[in-house]
């Protein structure tokens, strides 16, 4: 893929220039406020990508003599690398289709009015935090009619939350007689998120909690979870081999909150997940939550989403939001279809977890700290005293 930066005073202007130079195959990768050393070139830096095979039509250099994007393997490949190549090509195809749809929608639309004053500063703040350009354009159009003097930050946050609730699929899960399985790459925060939700869904509602761990293939992998389960008074069982899981789940699924932890497979290890996937499928109706680390690169997150489709996830949880300066990049994944259920923004148990709503996303994107006040607002019972979990090692 060829990557090129455009500098302009608005994201809309940069998009138009990229469309003129690169054609409809240009992919909007990310936008941000220009760095001090490039500020003279334009207020915003907007980065576009173009598949190498498309560059011949615009006179750009190709990535190599094979016509494949730079970094792709060539020659005789093993099945794992071929599968990786196919996932990458499918991802590029989806990005190109989305850009084409956006360009078709924008044709004939008037350019958004210029936004100045406090609203302009807030739009620049969102751009620097990774919010996609199309959302910035919609906000700019909506705010251009408001006098700058009337714009308060609380009003701005309410407008942003409203736009996000329409633009991003959001659906907090509420388990009702269904086991909930947590899947995701290593280090994505599955185990800690499971404990936070065990407290929210079980302990605070005085509901029995049964935790099963399928992570028997790594040394002492279940010990941390066993320790946490003991602290919150939950039952814990390491399931090995995985195929016995359905027989363990069925007797308790209507008597307790059933939560299932799975191994963290890297993308190269996913072929070893067949037995775990089969065990989950034989558990019948269930929720499968894919946990992803928000501080990872957007391209890595999208590859993980593509690879973990074999688990049939139906919800997303983003973790480690406190470790990234560009939380808006998670919005770029919203178009892939899975609704976001929760946002984990710190290591505190259970408080650093909030339901994904337009307002909680707006709070995180603005970085004003008000999301903490919402973290347990949806839990009617008071916090259970004496948990003593405090801050854990990872979000």
What would you say this structure looks like, in words?
This protein has 395 residues and is an alpha/beta fold. The protein folds into two domains: 106 residues, no CATH class; 195 residues, P-loop containing nucleotide triphosphate hydrolases (Rossmann fold), CATH 3.40.50. It contains eleven helices and eleven strands. The strands form two sheets. It has an eight-stranded mixed beta sheet, sandwiched between helices. The longest helix is centred in the N-terminal third of the chain and has 28 residues. It is globular and about 65 Å long. About 11% of the residues have low confidence.
Q: Taking all residues together, what is the mean pLDDT?
A: 75
Number-wise, the strands total 11
Reported CATH architecture of the largest domain: 3-Layer(aba) Sandwich
The rounded distance between the terminal residues' Cα atoms is 33 Å
How many domains, in number, for the residues? 2
What strand order characterises the main sheet? 6-5-7-4-8-9-10-11
CATH class of the largest domain: Alpha Beta
Described by strand count, sense and barrel closure, the largest sheet is:
8 strands, mixed
The best one-word shape is globular
CATH superfamily of the largest domain: P-loop containing nucleotide triphosphate hydrolases
Low-confidence stretches: 58-77, 103-113, 373-386
Structural class call reads alpha/beta
Approximately what portion of the residues adopt beta-strand conformation?
5-15%
DSSP helical segment count: 11
- What integer value in Å does the Rg equal? 23 Å
Looking at CATH, which topology of the largest domain would you report? Rossmann fold
Order of helices and strands: EHEEHHHHEHEHEHEHEHEEEH
Helix content: 25-40%
């Amino acid at each position: 893929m060829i990557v090129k930066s455009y500098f302009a005073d608005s994201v809309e202007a940069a998009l138009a220039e990229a469309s003129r130079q690169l054609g409809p195959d240009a992919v909007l990768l990310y936008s941000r406020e220009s760095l001090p050393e490039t500020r003279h070139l334009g207020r915003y830096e907007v980065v576009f990508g173009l598949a190498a095979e498309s560059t011949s039509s615009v006179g750009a250099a190709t990535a190599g003599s094979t016509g494949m994007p730079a970094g792709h393997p060539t020659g005789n490949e093993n099945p794992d690398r071929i599968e990786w190549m196919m996932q990458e090509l499918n991802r590029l195809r989806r990005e190109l289709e989305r850009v084409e749809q956006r360009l078709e929608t924008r044709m004939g639309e008037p350019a958004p009015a210029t936004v100045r004053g406090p609203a302009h500063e807030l739009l620049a703040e969102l751009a620097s935090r990774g919010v996609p350009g199309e959302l910035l354009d919609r906000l700019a159009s909506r705010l251009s009619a408001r006098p700058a003097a009337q714009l308060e930050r609380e009003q701005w946050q309410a407008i942003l939350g409203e736009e996000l609730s329409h633009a991003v699929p959001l659906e907090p899960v509420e388990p009702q007689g269904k086991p909930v399985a947590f899947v995701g790459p290593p280090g994505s925060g599955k185990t800690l998120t499971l404990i936070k939700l065990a407290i929210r869904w079980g302990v605070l509602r005085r509901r029995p909690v049964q935790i099963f761990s399928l992570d028997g293939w790594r040394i002492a992998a279940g010990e941390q979870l066993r320790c946490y389960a003991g602290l919150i008074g939950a039952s814990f069982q390491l399931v090995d081999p995985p195929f016995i899981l359905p027989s363990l789940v069925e007797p308790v699924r209507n008597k307790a909150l059933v939560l299932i932890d799975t191994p963290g497979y890297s993308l190269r290890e996913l072929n070893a997940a067949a037995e775990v996937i089969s065990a989950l499928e034989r558990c019948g109706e269930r929720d499968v939550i894919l946990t992803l680390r928000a501080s990872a690169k957007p391209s890595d997150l999208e590859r993980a989403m593509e690879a973990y489709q074999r688990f049939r996830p139906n919800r997303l949880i983003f973790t480690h939001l406190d470790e990234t300066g560009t939380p808006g990049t998670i919005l770029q994944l919203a178009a892939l279809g899975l609704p976001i259920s929760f946002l984990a923004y710190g290591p505190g148990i259970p408080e650093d977890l909030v339901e994904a709503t337009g307002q909680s996303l707006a709070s995180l994107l603005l970085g004003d700290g008000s999301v903490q006040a919402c973290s347990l607002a949806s839990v009617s019972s008071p916090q259970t005293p004496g948990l003593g979990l405090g801050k854990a090692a990872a979000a």
